[in-house]
Amino acid sequence: MEEQKLPRREREKLAQRREMMAAALELFSERGFRNVSMQEIAEKSEFAIGTLYKFFRNKEDLYRALILEQSSRFHEAVTKAIEGPEEEIEKLRNFVKAKGEVFRANVAMIRLYFSETQGARVNVMAGFDSEVRERYRRFLRSFASVFESGMKRERFRRIADPYHLAVALESFTNAFLFLWLEEPERHPYPDDPDTILNILFKGLLLPIDTPEVQDETSGYRS
Amino acid sequence: MEEQKLPRREREKLAQRREMMAAALELFSERGFRNVSMQEIAEKSEFAIGTLYKFFRNKEDLYRALILEQSSRFHEAVTKAIEGPEEEIEKLRNFVKAKGEVFRANVAMIRLYFSETQGARVNVMAGFDSEVRERYRRFLRSFASVFESGMKRERFRRIADPYHLAVALESFTNAFLFLWLEEPERHPYPDDPDTILNILFKGLLLPIDTPEVQDETSGYRS
Amino acid sequence: MEEQKLPRREREKLAQRREMMAAALELFSERGFRNVSMQEIAEKSEFAIGTLYKFFRNKEDLYRALILEQSSRFHEAVTKAIEGPEEEIEKLRNFVKAKGEVFRANVAMIRLYFSETQGARVNVMAGFDSEVRERYRRFLRSFASVFESGMKRERFRRIADPYHLAVALESFTNAFLFLWLEEPERHPYPDDPDTILNILFKGLLLPIDTPEVQDETSGYRS
Amino acid sequence: MEEQKLPRREREKLAQRREMMAAALELFSERGFRNVSMQEIAEKSEFAIGTLYKFFRNKEDLYRALILEQSSRFHEAVTKAIEGPEEEIEKLRNFVKAKGEVFRANVAMIRLYFSETQGARVNVMAGFDSEVRERYRRFLRSFASVFESGMKRERFRRIADPYHLAVALESFTNAFLFLWLEEPERHPYPDDPDTILNILFKGLLLPIDTPEVQDETSGYRS
DNA sequence: CATGAATGAGTCTTCATTCAT
DNA sequence: GATGAATGAAGACTCATTCAT
């Protein structure tokens, strides 16, 4: 790709940087920013501490880079999922699938992601995280517009504020990812996105005088 | 003599302890366990460091006490909301309301709560947090049984695994709380629980050949 | 005794002081000056910390008082043993016996005593210990004069500097006390002082051409 | 020596370690374990505190290393003195000389040594000191066997239990070292070992009917 | 007058960061 | 350019001492 065109020196540098960040990702995601020492990152990545400091001005800078990179990867994937010419329903399915793929391929990322978007953003550092959060908010808005467009195109009922629906689907996929993270066997992230989406698609409430008409195949049987 | 003094002394002690924990709550919730020093907690609570250590064996102990207390308060409220003789729907409404009340009365608690139940629990301390998590899991199970009972009593459609529905509602409310936390003006936590519940109650998908029949009052208008 | 004549108030005070010092003696002798807290002394003696400070200006003062008292008790006993009209040999026997009695009656005192006269005088406090040491030196000199007088009266051979002999007997009894302290069963402090004194009384060296003539009863048989 | 062959880095490390331990020895021997701060050791040895901790895991570790090193040095010297093919008398002389040499070359060591073998071992740390003490006991036993062998070979009278004789000579030399430590001018550690040994060699008691026959040259004249 | 709660200086220890080699 | 030894600021925790009750 792009890297192939770079001089060898530069390519090596990038590879080193990647190794450092990989080590840092694993450690930070397991133990958090303050519970990991530069010493450990150096050892795990098999570089000298001084070399680490050649690539990152300080510990914070390394963390910042990590968060930005991981959050970019996530946003790239989910943004791609909801952009395109497909039907809105299909976009939601793509989103659920893509999010699952990204995170299952990168468990360490989940913790980091949640600790920065959902968790008590320990505010490790001021200001910078606003960048991540801003991007996150922008994504939510364009996610909301998927619902809005679905409503406009009379594909979706206007059951709630599209932004709220976006937030709902975001948070529900998160919840599934958490369940999976803690007990992968018992709570697998569903392969079929509709397992998640049916909570939005189908109404829970059973009108007293209305017989159940929707297909039962995806319904739940105790 | 001593008997006369003891109650007052005890009351004072409790008040002091509360002040310490209040200061700690605020600081920990803002910056996390490792980013707060005992020095700071002492200053904020206006006690000497030594006095802090009279009440809590060490920093961890203080944090532990804080988490346990806050999580107890939360569980008490939501457990009360879903227990009782009401209809299942009413219980869900109670839950949404109660959760909103608890958290709006105690903003700092939210961060702490999420950092321990949802956030990338950096595993500040081993073992103890399992207590909090275990209680959380138990709550989720009894929350799920509300959905299950609703299904058994033909009040709810079997649109999904009751546990998933419980997790869904849990995470929706969390998401709403986060929105409110970040931009209280723009995203107030809804007074009407149905604003949140409609995401579950009503189906999003509009069957192509089915006219929209459900009441429009709680529907969304752009 | 003297105390009976004091007003009740005064007698009580003395008794309290004694209790404090008894607790302190036990603790200090077991763990040393720095490893014992005033808190502990207060608890062990069942007084409030503040009360301790009514009797002793500070921790050092308490320690000082303890050392002075114990060392006085010791010096009284051994001084009495070597004063009087008896033969020099008898005085040495009295010394060995008296020292054994004092210490066996007061194990805690041994450690304190050694830590201040022999051990690495941790120099807990400057200056004051010179008082103890000075008294110790004075005792050694008067102990030496026992040997000197024995030589003058042709009871003792002039095998060494009397002061050295005094030091030798002092240190040898100490060594026996240490052995006893560590393994009371295996190394009892001898009841018969001659077990110790024979090392001074009898010559170790066997002149090649001289048959052993001295009485064998007190000699050693493997 | 061996060190010359080490890489420069290693040699420097050893030299640094030596300097740290030298500073620590001086301070610990003067004021004891608890009365010396790492800060002080750092200042005295002219290293930063952090550097100290690169060499020793913690304060206790530094102390432990110190004790072990010093006690090894001592035991090596005295063990060498009493091993070998010489006559028993000669071994005792060697012991007295060797002990004097070791300690006079290393004044600080004396205090440390006594505080760990004789002094009220405040039990600074548990377990490890047993190693030092055990070695000390072993030495005493092999020292005792010198006396025993002398008795078997009819060189020594059986005036006392060989173990007691060993303890006696140990404690005599200690006592002499203490005298020297406190007033080097007035109480030099004798160059002639017989000054000390005569206390064992010659009998103090003068049989009434026995003229003094042993050589007077080493006897004491006031 | 006794009490013991409150204080905060002082201690050990960690770890981000620098810089000589 | 890479290295990792050296640094020392900062943090958790203890405990002698004071003083309000």
Structure commentary:
Chain A contains nine helices and no strands. Chain A has helices at 8-31, 38-45, 49-55, 59-82, 88-104, 107-117, 128-152, 162-182, 194-201. The longest helix of chain A has 25 residues, at 128-152. The termini of chain A are far apart. In chain A, 42% of the residues are buried. Residues 118-126 and 209-218 of chain A have low confidence and may be disordered. The interface between C and D is large, with 63 and 58 residues. Chain B binds a DNA duplex (21 and 21 nucleotides) through helix 1, helix 2 and helix 3.
Report the count of strand segments of chain A.
Answer: 0
Computed over alpha carbons, the radius of gyration of chain A is 21 Å
Largest sheet report of chain A: none
Assembly of the depicted chains: homotetramer
Mean pLDDT across all residues of chain A, rounded? 83
Strand residue percentage of chain A:
under 5%
Based on the coordinates given, report the CATH architecture of the largest domain in chain A: Orthogonal Bundle
Number of domains as seen in the coordinates of chain A: 2
CATH superfamily of the largest domain in chain A: Tetracycline Repressor, domain 2
Q: In CATH, what is the class of the largest domain in chain A?
A: Mainly Alpha
Write down the secondary-structure element order of chain A: HHHHHHHHH
Low-confidence stretches of chain A: 118-126, 209-218
Largest interface: A-B, 62 and 61 residues
Q: What is the CA–CA distance across the termini of chain A?
A: 51 Å
Q: SS-based structural class of chain A? A: mainly alpha
Total count of helical runs of at least 4 residues of chain A? 9
Q: Helicity of chain A, in percent?
A: 55-70%
At the fold tier of CATH, the topology name of the largest domain in chain A is Tetracycline Repressor, domain 2
Shape of chain A: elongated
